[in-house]
Design goal:
single chain; alpha+beta; Heat Shock Protein 90; 3 domains; seven-stranded mixed sheet
Length: 470
């Protein structure tokens, strides 16, 4: 499920909300229309029955309501069937005692309630209680009936007489149909709503898939598996991809210029320092000694901060990656030749496929300093191993069989950057530079004791495994 602050969740929630509201409104509308339609159909049937009763209704010579042909529908003959008709004279309704009252057999001894309709020909529709607490739909009309024979002058035969004729039907069947329709409509709306939400979620997922592709492409660039965003993007996303590719290219160009400037600065500073060192070399006196000492300090500081500046620029490069095995092999071979005269043997163990997530020159700087430092203090054996640790970390271990270091000396070397033996060549900044480069890449350097009693330098760095997951 998408998180609540995600764009996909917002789009799906808004669309689902409006869809649910629309479906609910549509459901109520359909239910209302169905009820109106079925009630209208019932009203039409009741009006047809009413007109059938009126068609066969007559008055005899004495003004009595009669039916020339009885209604043959079975529903009007079965007691309390839910279908009723009734005819009552209007002239004495004020006393609640109509002179004549005729009703269907289905009413048995009950009477349908009457309305206040007085105008002949006017049809009244409504609801009324039934004989056994039924809810009835009632249609009634006041009609003026004429005797079957035209009365002769002076005869006792009555003329026209108004009667209220009513037809009623039980609403139970209609309510049952409406309830069945509403039940079907409810589950149909629920199924349609769920289908719409699922369809919207799928559409949003497919619509936002290019953004996910951009995210994965950027991760590949950061991890060094690609140097630009590859693939085809929709028209709306393509400008973003182009700008990101331009940004990556610009970043690489800026870093390249920074490296060039750092190299130029190193050359510019080291040359004058070398001239000063040569001028005071072998010159007696405290002034010459002071100048030589300060030149050495300046050299160490220049090496330190130039290395740090170059590393910061390298660490900011997107997509930098380096195969470890070639670097270990080249440095081991080069330093092995350099220290062959001192009887130093370098043994390496580095499987193919290990990838450092960083610049090659920085990896060479770190491994080269550790190997060089180990060769200076070793009695005859230096070992270097590289392996992939859990959580995709690269662990490089350089150990020697030299005299080793105490805990206090390890702290002085790593924490304070002190040089323990001025008789050894170099500036004494090797371990400090290695530590700072490792920190800039999110790694760390630690010192331990080797199996032969010497120093074991353990370098932990970010790596890229074979699947490319960091």
């Amino acid at each position: 499920m998408p998180r609540t602050n995600s764009l996909a969740f917002r789009l799906v929630a808004i669309a689902a909300g409006w869809s649910v509201l629309g479906l609910i409104a549509g459901g109520f509308l359909l239910s209302s229309l169905f009820r109106s339609s079925i009630e209208r159909s019932l009203d039409n049937r009741l009006v047809a029955d009413l007109e059938s009763v009126i068609a066969v209704a007559e008055l005899d010579c004495g003004g009595t309501f009669t039916m020339s042909k009885p209604l043959i529908a079975e529903r009007f003959n079965r007691a309390f069937s839910g279908s009723y008709w009734q005819a009552a004279s209007v002239e004495q309704e004020a006393n609640k005692k109509p002179k004549q009252l005729m009703r269907s057999r289905s009413l048995w001894n009950k009477v349908l309630p009457s309305s206040t309709v007085q105008t002949p020909g006017e049809t009244q529709k409504g609801y009324a209680p039934g004989p056994i607490r039924q809810r009835l739909r009632l249609v009634e009309r006041v009609v003026s009936l004429t005797g079957s024979d035209s009365p002769a002058p002076g005869s006792k035969c009555s003329g026209d007489k108004p009667f209220r004729i009513a037809i009623a039907a039980d609403m139970k069947d209609i309510e049952s149909e409406v309830e069945s329709f509403n039940s079907t409509l409810f589950w149909s709306v629920v199924a349609l709503g769920l289908s719409l939400v699922a369809a919207m979620a799928l559409l949003v997922r497919l619509g936002l898939a290019p953004l996910d592709h951009v995210s994965k492409s950027l991760a590949a660039i950061r991890e060094g598996r690609a140097d630009r965003l590859e693939g085809k993007f929709p028209t709306e996303i393509q400008p973003l991809a182009d700008e990101l590719n331009a940004l990556v290219t610009h970043n690489a160009e800026v870093v390249a210029r920074a490296r060039t400037h750092v190299g130029n600065l190193a050359h510019f500073l080291k040359t004058p320092l070398s001239v000063l060192a040569n001028e005071v070399h072998g010159v007696p006196g405290p002034m010459a000694e002071t100048v030589a000492r300060q030149v050495q300090v300046m050299r160490r500081q220049v090496d330190h901060y130039l290395a740090r500046a170059r590393t910061v620029a390298s660490a900011s490069v997107l997509g930098a990656r380096t195969d470890v095995a070639p670097v270990v092999s080249d440095l081991s071979r080069a330093l092995g030749k350099l220290y062959t005269g001192q009887g130093i043997m370098i043994e390496r163990s580095c499987p193919d496929g290990l990838i450092f997530r960083g610049d090659r020159s920085d990896l060479e700087e770190m491994i080269g300093n550790l190997l060089d430092n180990a060769c200076k203090w070793a009695q005859g054996q230096v070992d270097i191993t590289a392996a992939l640790a859990p959580l995709s970390r690269l662990v490089i271990t350089v150990s020697d069989d030299g005299p080793g270091l105490s805990e206090e000396q390890k702290m002085r070397v790593l924490e304070r950057g002190e040089r323990l033996d001025e008789s050894k060549p170099g500036s004494g900044l090797g371990l400090g530079i290695v530590k700072e480069i490792a920190l800039l890449y999110g790694g760390h350097l630690s010192l331990g004791q080797s199996a032969t009693g010497g120093v074991s330098a353990i370098l932990n760095l970010p790596a890229i495994d074979r699947g490319g997951v960091v």
